[in-house]
Write a structure and sequence with these properties.
Length: about 220
């Protein structure tokens, strides 16, 4: 049993399929993809022989030992460290809202939930809500009633949604909305609970909720005061 992390991968859209195939080979079936644009200058693109700066961003939850295996393969098989190869990094999870969503995210019935993240002294948390499209208002209404001030929405597409029936007893659509909410650590549990109760798996939103530790912030001063 290893610690849980959110793995974020940012690569050129043209080669993201290779990364997806590698992750699936390592049991990472449930992932969430969105698109982005890099900020490299034309001079940098020319220097490294790159064409365009369109990126794909992939998110998935995994155990520490799985990450170590994937990291080695990213370096050896896909040469991620070479110019234009992309980047993958992990952030420790603080908590996951429920045993079934946790099993779904990591694709295993055997994982035993550990205590919350070792980063105990953080004052804020990033709450991540992954839901069906069209239910942002419901999610944010529940979050605000529990003390949240606002959130940011990202449109994404999920893979491995067919496993939702096995692990959670519900069916999920591929099209997703990811809502990011920064909140005080003391309010995190109340916000997550409120979202789960009003926009969780039993609702049309079918939200999955987890949180990540935030070590520092800027821009929340007035709210803290």
């Amino acid at each position: 049993m290893g610690k849980l992390y959110l793995m974020t991968t940012i690569v050129d859209r043209k080669i993201v399929k290779k990364y997806l195939e590698l992750y699936k080979e390592n049991g990472q079936n449930v992932m969430f993809f969105t698109l982005g644009v890099g900020t490299a200058t034309n001079e940098m693109l020319d220097y490294f022989g790159l064409d365009v700066n369109e990126k794909a961003l992939a998110l998935s939850v995994l155990e520490e030992n799985t990450w170590m295996d994937i990291k080695k393969q990213l370096q050896k098989k896909l040469q991620i460290d070479a110019p234009g190869g992309g980047i993958a990094f992990i952030v420790p999870l603080s908590s996951v809202g429920g045993k079934k969503p946790l099993q779904f995210l990591i694709g295993s019935n055997d994982y035993q939930k550990e205590e919350e993240s070792v980063l105990k002294n953080t004052n804020n948390e990033l709450i991540v809500v992954i839901a069906e499209q069209g239910y942002t208002d419901l999610i944010m209404s529940a979050a605000r009633e529990a003390g949240a001030y606002g959130g940011t929405v990202i449109h994404a597409k999920g893979t491995g949604m067919e496993f939702a029936e096995k692990f959670m007893g519900v069916s999920l659509a591929a099209e997703k909305e990811i809502v990011l909410i920064v909140a005080k650590t003391a309010q995190k549990n109340d916000i997550m609970k409120a979202v789960i109760e009003k926009a969780g798996l039993e609702s049309k939103a079918k939200s999955i909720v987890f949180s990540l530790p935030v070590t520092d912030t800027a821009g929340l001063r007035l709210l803290e005061d």
